[in-house]
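anyone seen this seq b4? input:
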Amino acid sequence: MRIRDVVPVRSPKVIEGMKAQRQRWARPGVEIEVVPVEQGPFSMEFATEEVLAGPHVLKAVRQAENDGCDAVVLDCMVDPVLRAARETVRIPVLAPGQSGLTVANLLGARVAVIGMRNGQQLLEEHIRAYGFERRICSMHTVNAPPADLIESKDYCLEIIEREITSALTQHRAEVVLFGCTAMSGYVDALSERFDVPIVEPMACAINMAIALANMGLSHSKRCYESLPRRGTAPGSIDLF
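predicted toks r here
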């Protein structure tokens, strides 16, 4: 089985960090391929960057299907162009925002999200769109660039630990969900320090992708209908 992890940014540190971290979910018979977009924004923290990355993410998703991959995961908590990606292909397309929120809400009734300061509003919009707003007891942010998070800087760990403590003591959180996929490297150390589940969203997305592929399931084309072929005109963009 081949699961392709599409990284929607071009930051070298983030790309290399994700290539190393995602292999922890590989196993006999399951290959995790981490492939960055050919072109895209340096980082993915704002809606503008999602729009800039969109065409290149869709190209990468189509290429994954053409290459015979069994599923695709979009490696960013804002789930860049997730709906469009599902309209584009028939293989399962998973994303960490939707997957992480789903898993976190299976584990407790009060979920705290620890994300990045930049892009907090975009993540909150996704939470509302997915219908999880009433299950989120608090939102916390880390004011650090993704490159520092992916390198597991000590000061980032201190901030995350402090925000988790605040979520538990002040907001009675029962589950903690990381709100950025660059935080993957902190989950093991923090899980040992706190007595609540700490949910890493990429683990959720990748393992859901594996499960769906194993079950032979993918998104409904009645919901994510493929685009019909249309005519062309000067300046029009051809999806195909």
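The mean pLDDT is 95. Residues 47-66 form the longest helix (20 residues). kinda curious what u guys think
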